[in-house]
Sequence to fold (436 residues):
Amino acid sequence: MAASVPAAEPAILVATGDVTPTGAVVWARGRHAGTLEVLYGVVGGAAPMARRALSVTAGGDFTGKLALTGLTPATRYAVRVSQGETRAEAEFVTAPPPDAPARVTFLWSGDLGGGGYCRPLDGGYRIFAPMLDRRADFFLFVGDTIYADVPCDRPGVVAGAEFRARTLAQYRARHRYNREDAALSALLRGTSVYAIWDDHEVRNDFSGPHDWLMPVGRQALLDYWPIAPPAEEPTRLYRRFRWGRLLEVFILDTRQYRSSNADTDGPGKTMLGAEQKRWLVDGVTSSTATWKVVVTSVSLSIPTGKPNARDSWTGVSAFGLPVDGAGFVTERDAILDRFRKHGVKNLVFVAADVHHAELIRHHPTPEWSFHEFVAGPLSATLGRPRPLDSTLNPRSLFGRGGVLNFGEVVVEPAHLTVRLIDDTGAVMFTHTIAPD
Fold:
């Protein structure tokens, strides 16, 4: 009788995220319960690496996070995580000081594994290799990091996610399924990530206060991403970070506090909740960074969801025309009006969700404008551009469907350059904007 082949030992998974000038979060998943040894230090530095211990348990699905502090700004760090004889290594760069006019490059996209476009047996998620090649300072993962509500049961995909998640263990398994992809794992070891959810981390078009699955979906998200909520609010996902003098990023949680999509639009309907809305308005209007980037998992101007229960901010029809009572337009326009009245300049929203790439300039009033950058999917059903919300007076600078894609933004003192890039690494479109 032939000897059985032993199962391969699981690898250690490592990622870094929520980076600041002096801190970062290290996330890891061990092979089994026990203690992980975490070493970290400046790449090429003379000082010995600092050593920390990270305990992981079966109850936490062998995942854990460490908050690193006291780091040096604008410095590349190496991280080594080991358990027994198995180890994994990662690198990240800390943000520059708030007053430094430092060049910064970041990537953004979303929508991974939707519509059955799960990990291919032949090569896995190939889009992450050209993303790693860009050598960005960080990656904004703008929602739908998993599709927990869509089984991965098509031929030609890696087994292990042939179910719709309903329990914490199942949600964790769907995260683990994506995170074990070799190319995604390599990207997350090579650059830091700021991740946020959209709907499919729980289920399609969900509204947090009205969905009993939201708490388990949220817990799995927190278990599997290097997100560091404040101790006094351990489930908070919206956050901001500064990257030198040129850039400040505001990451929105568009799910946890939202009203039902089917509610009639008006002053009482909210996507953000009162506290997050106040945080956003106060933060953007007081920011001294040259460029203000707001991360919203759903588009300001591209309609999604049912006609009478729009899931994105806009409430327009398929022809781009307003529909009374649809969407979250009252809250959106109130926020934009505050930005306009405060004279906010160099404002960019980055989004995913709609499964096509597009760059849009909105000019809602003659004297004020802003941009919306849309990318994705990373691997999901392919969409196409559609009529935009006419009330924002939009101008589409470029739009393309039918291709997996991500976006790159390079911010320099003289200008911001945005590129839309397909899954082979080919640049589809480049646009440069000078700051006002």
Summary: Helices lie at 128-133, 168-179, 182-190, 214-224, 274-286, 329-341. Confidence is low (pLDDT under 50) at residues 1-7. DSSP finds six helices and 22 strands in the chain.
